[in-house]
Automatic annotation (TrEMBL):
UniProt record similarity statement: Belongs to the glutamine synthetase family.
Organism classification: Eukaryota, Fungi, Dikarya, Ascomycota, Pezizomycotina
PROSITE patterns: GS_CATALYTIC
Residues annotated as domain GS catalytic: 133-449
PANTHER family (alphabetical): GAMMA-GLUTAMYLPUTRESCINE SYNTHETASE, TYPE-1 GLUTAMINE SYNTHETASE 1
Organism: Aspergillus caelatus
Keyword Ligase: yes
MF annotations from Gene Ontology: glutamine synthetase activity
Listed name of the protein: GS catalytic domain-containing protein
Keywords noted in UniProt: Ligase
């Protein structure tokens, strides 16, 4: 079989008539809508938005030739809102709304639509989505279906805690304090009523929620989302984040999914992903898992994408070594049942479109190469235990270096332009956050994530 390749055909929206119909139908059902929030997630994991009055949105759609222009933020802007030094001012980007993703925002006057991003330069005037994370995920899912007869279901565990501003120091401190680990006492914490309020709103929108429970040792909650196809699962995840943050903001608090909000607090926050594989052409489980494990250090550059992410590099959190096991929560990949895994080395600062595309693409590379599963099942107690010599990256610098060394391998998943730009931006971010005040850095992450 030919080497796995990405088709970087231009991304185009549906016809203006189709977009207009979707928007008009939605507006008819929700006539109180005044604003349309066009959202996209950049390489740093930051969610960005262009907000338009709905009447202006209709005008732009009707004109056909006038796209939704935005600055080149997708791959040129760091988590600190600094542009790459050599970012081209002549690079033009615009948004490609996926109108099937339109949903009510938590602001009752707004609707939100997830977008892809296309770009042009003077030397390449034809619009293309080479750098678009959403395009990357769509292409990987399509190739899995067409080349291997594979379909996926993806579900996320949304962990979070609630912060408030200290009246004494002016810094963020933890507000939710209830006992965790499924404790009923944690549900008596005053914050929990706002969790319920948010979940009720999400259920009314048709969000698929499996359950809610208190998490961690103290002061955390988790909302488990039911599985959906990959793109819809990530879109739904962002909708849940938006509602959580807005619900608590309305009451003067901050819901955060930042990996370690408080330096002195041992609590960390992850965003575990459940991935199920369905094959119509035979059993592909073993080589698919092998492909992911072989490339797990590179995947960490996407799934643990910031310096603070590596404070979760511990057993029972993100894991320490490249390994897997049936019901082995100590490992970064926990097998639940046949062709169903929980990927644990992920946090909410990740661009989840890129992260999921990297995981699925690595699995497909494993299938293409018929790669053997060299790692034993750590959940099998009949297997003699041993010390694993391949650690997960200890820092973002290490994971980015892994990705740079294997750029050609991952380039077959994303295309080299995306990989090279992602590495460049991460290296710039490392230099930017290295000199920041640790408290200010965590405050920034609490606000963004």
């Amino acid at each position: 079989m030919d080497q796995l390749s990405i088709h970087t055909s231009r991304i185009t929206p549906g016809t203006p008539m189709d977009a207009n119909k979707v928007l008009k139908d939605f507006h008819r059902d929700y006539p109180h809508i005044i604003f349309i929030r066009l959202q996209w997630q950049d390489y740093s994991g930051v969610m960005r938005a262009l907000v338009l009055p709905i009447e202006e949105t209709y005008i732009i759609l009707a004109e056909e030739t006038q796209p939704f222009h935005v600055p080149p933020l997708l791959s040129n802007c760091s988590v600190t809102n600094q542009y790459l030094p050599d970012a081209s001012a002549r690079h033009v980007q615009w948004l490609v709304p996926d109108w099937s993703s339109i949903r009510l925002a938590s602001d009752p006057k707004s609707a939100m639509v997830m977008c892809g991003v296309v770009g042009t330069t003077i030397s390449k005037p034809v619009p293309n989505g080479d750098l678009c994370p959403r395009r990357a995920l769509v292409d990987i899912v399509r190739q899995a279906r067409e080349l291997w007869g594979l379909r996926f279901l993806v579900g996320f565990e949304v962990e979070f805690q609630v912060m408030k501003v200290s009246s004494v120091t002016g810094e963020y401190v933890k507000h939710s304090q209830g006992p965790g680990n499924f404790s009923v006492s944690g549900l008596r914490d005053p914050c929990y009523r706002y969790v319920q309020q948010c979940v009720q709103q999400l259920l009314a929108l048709g969000v698929h929620i499996h359950g809610i429970h208190s998490e961690g040792k103290r002061g955390q909650y988790e909302i488990a989302l039911k599985p959906l196809p990959p793109l819809q699962a990530v879109d739904q995840l962002h909708l849940v984040h938006d509602y959580l943050k807005d619900t608590f903001a309305q009451h003067g608090y901050m819901a955060t999914m930042a990996p370690k909000p408080v330096i002195s607090d041992p609590h960390t926050i992850g965003q575990h992903m459940h991935l199920s594989l369905e094959s119509v052409n035979g059993d592909h489980e073993t080589s698919f898992l092998a492909g992911i494990l072989k490339r797990l250090p590179m995947i960490c550059a996407f799934s643990l994408p910031h310096t603070l992410s590596y404070e979760r590099r511990l057993p029972f959190l993100a894991g320490e070594t490249v390994c897997w096991g049936t019901e082995a929560r100590i490992a970064p990949i926990r097998k639940i049942e046949a062709s169903h895994w929980e990927i644990r080395c992920i946090d909410a600062t990740a661009n989840m479109y890129l992260t999921l595309a990297a995981i699925l693409g690595a699995g497909l590379l494993g299938l293409e190469g018929q790669e053997p599963l060299l790692w034993p099942d750590l959940g099998d107690f009949t297997i003699e235990s041993k010390t694993w010599e391949e650690p997960l990256p200890r820092t973002l610098q290490e994971s980015v270096a892994w990705l740079a060394r294997k750029a050609d391998d991952f380039g077959t998943i994303f295309g080299l332009p995306l990989i090279q730009r992602y590495i460049e931006l991460k290296q710039y971010e490392i230099s930017q956050v290295g000199g920041m005040n640790p408290v200010k850095l965590r405050e920034l992450f609490i606000e963004l994530f």
